[in-house]
Design a protein that fits this description.
globular, 43% helix, alpha/beta, single chain, 241 residues, 6-stranded parallel sheet
Length: 241
């Protein structure tokens, strides 16, 4: 397994300041937009090697932790332990919204992928952006993946937000992921931050971004969904066989 790294939740104000991609001082250098932009789009996969691409915001990027402590890298370790021939690509970008993801997904997908893990929308919800726009952007990302990598399996990471903006908005935000997954027949991770969100022991001082221990739980949440999918891909006969 080769791992490549591109470069909720207590208080809304903290969330916006910690996840905002505009002030460079809020993002460690290892996770800056410049680092995230180093997409190995032209690097060919070795023979028989498949690609798993994690596309998300600061959670995927591993804000505040070492690259090998972020959940995509931990999932990569699990893949490696099973001897599955996958290259894991971390295309997380701190501060990313669904609109930002929509604008860069085509560039990221200059090489085809086999599994695309979509983790976006949390920053939209924390900012109180219209859910119609979030839904439209997520759908556009999904449509782009299916055009660029028609055979890719898309995994959608469900998110939830605190009720700062009202219980109705929070409930509708949660339901949005279930609706999109059902509409597009995606594999759904019900809630990426299950067991971590809101637990001070598992989050950094900002109360939002997981600690290394928190990322280990995120990796388990993802792996419980991803493992059977990857093993099924490996077991499937080649096309035309």
């Amino acid at each position: 397994m080769n791992f490549i790294r591109f470069p909720f939740a207590a208080m809304l104000v903290l969330a916006l300041s910690a996840c905002d991609s505009s002030p460079a001082t809020n993002t460690p250098a290892s996770q800056s937009a410049a680092s995230a932009a180093k997409v190995p789009a032209n690097e060919p996969a070795s023979a028989g090697e498949k690609r798993v691409l994690f596309f998300g915001n600061s959670l995927t990027a591993g804000y505040g932790v070492e690259p090998d402590q972020a959940f995509p890298a931990l999932v990569g370790q699990k893949i490696d332990s099973l001897g599955l021939d996958y290259k894991v690509i971390n295309a997380g970008l701190s501060g990313e919204t669904t609109a930002g993801g929509r604008s860069r997904v085509g560039w990221v997908l200059r090489q085809p992928v086999d599994v695309f893990v979509l983790e976006l929308g949390g920053n939209d919800g924390l900012r109180g952006l219209p859910l119609t726009a979030t839904r439209r952007n997520l759908q556009a990302i999904i449509d782009t993946v299916r055009r660029r990598s028609p055979k890719a399996q898309i995994v959608l990471a469900g998110m939830q937000i605190p009720p700062n903006l009202g219980a109705t908005y929070a409930a509708d935000f949660k339901a949005l992921y279930q609706e999109i997954a059902a509409k597009n027949k995606l594999v759904l991770i019900p809630f990426l931050l299950q067991g971590v969100g809101g637990d001070r022991r598992l989050n950094q001082p900002d109360g939002i971004h997981p600690t290394p221990a928190g990322h280990r739980i995120l990796a388990r949440n993802v792996w419980s969904v991803l493992q059977p999918l990857l093993q099924a891909q490996v077991a499937a006969p080649p096309a035309g066989a």
